[in-house]
Specification:
With 121 residues, this protein is an alpha+beta fold. It contains 2 helices and 6 strands. It has a 4-stranded antiparallel sheet, with no helix packed on it. It has a two-stranded antiparallel ribbon with strand order 1-2. A hairpin with a 6-residue loop joins strand 1 and strand 2.
Length: 121
């Protein structure tokens, strides 16, 4: 798993603690993503899409949508992440203001156990 927190070392030489919820939940590296939510070479910038599973109920959907308005819900697809029949696949994008804070808040939810990068095929 790749790092997704800030600086690699604290001033005292130890690794800083990642924000609550991030450790072990976000499985892709956030460092290459700019403040604008884009990554890649200057002539090929693109956003990063991500996916996660939530319980298949309206309360969970409303809660994550209140955090991340970029979300699309796919109840009939497990996605690459492998949502179960009792879960809904959510796909979002980093190309939005405060994308890092949004991912941190999503990762802190008890029912969001993993957030993976989405690779469109």
């Amino acid at each position: 798993m790749m790092s997704c927190s800030g600086p690699e070392e604290a001033a005292d030489g130890t690794s800083p603690d990642p924000p609550p919820g991030i450790a072990g939940v976000i499985t892709f590296d956030l460092e290459p993503i700019s403040e604008d939510g884009l990554t890649g070479p200057p002539d090929g910038l693109r956003s990063v899409s991500y996916e996660f599973c939530i319980p298949a109920d309206s309360a969970s959907a409303a809660e994550v949508l209140a955090i991340d308005t970029s979300l699309e819900f796919h109840s009939s697809s497990p996605g690459r992440i492998g949502c179960s029949d009792t879960q809904t696949l959510c796909i979002g994008s980093t190309h939005q203001p405060e994308w890092r804070s949004i991912l941190e808040r999503l990762s802190a939810l008890d029912y969001v156990t993993r957030i993976d990068q989405t690779f469109w095929e």
